[in-house]
Amino acid sequence: MRLPMNRRAFLAILGAAVGTPAAAAISSRKKPFRIGYLHPTDSHDVACTAFREALQHAGYVIGVNTILEERFAEDDVARLPALAAELVARHVDVIVAVSPTAIRAARAATGTIPVVMAFSGDDPVKSGFAATLARPGGNTTGLTTVALDMAPKWIELLADLRPGIRSIAVLRSPARADHDAQIAVMRVAAEAQRIRLHVAEVHGVEQYASAFNALSTAGCEAIVVLSGPEFTHNRVRLVELVNEHRLPSVYQFSDFVLIGGLASYGPGIADLSARAVVYVDKILKGANPALLPIEQPRRLFLVLNRKTANALGVAIPPRLLLQADEIIQ
Length: 329
Description:
This protein has helices at about 5-15, 20-30, 45-55, 80-90, 100-110, 150-160, 175-190, 210-215, 230-235, 235-245, 270-285, 305-310, 320-325; strands at about 35-40, 65-70, 95-100, 115-120, 140-145, 165-170, 195-200, 220-225, 250, 265, 300-305, 325-329. The chain is α/β, with parallel strands linked by helices and about 325 residues long. Helix 3 (about 45-55) links the parallel strand 1 and strand 2 (about 65-70).
């Protein structure tokens, strides 16, 4: 699966932070590093693929100088605490945790092994993962995708893609604090353009069809799908339903657009995975996670699917085409 970041840029991030001499030092180490990787879904997730590739480019060769202990909850988040405990029992040098639920499980399992947040969707400070972004304290650092300036842009994108729109649906997961914050700022942006938001909460893929029927009955003309492991894992079904109901759509991550979604605006998975490897590299070389500042997204990517736009009868404004980082033809 392609990612909205070219290989040259991907390598530049790693090269600047890790460097060739560092890679040589890694290769000369006698004892392999043991890296834990805790994920709420499965190994087919694009984040996992990008993370493995980033490790390789940084000089951490799985099976040679590095042992990658991967644990996947297969969408059953109740398994995460036990999986985190397995990683601790394997005496990993660092745990990379994907999603707030995985981060909480890793932190509950150990207070000493460093935990790298691979793009947490929850605010790290409000969630108790860190004291501050600049100085986390404790054993947890990494990346957060919490950047509320993204959310108003999703409303603006749909207003540009469907001029005169008056009702936008927002699909969210339950109990996600980041979704509450995003919806709050989207409401402000929508009210400024006299657009009504209709928020729908789904608890599993079995509720998708009924939720979309309800959104159609409510007269929604477009949709914002908020991020979350459950939506990512079921993205094929989700995008099918969005397009069946002929709803122009905006997502945070481009993997939805690559399979038929209309637009995405947010961080790139390859970019985030490369940055997570930079944290791993620093920690394995002796850096204290308590002193490594937590990063917010450095760059946001606009990805558009022209084929989907044509199928929906949506005319993409020329200025959006010029601004796009990638256009799916």
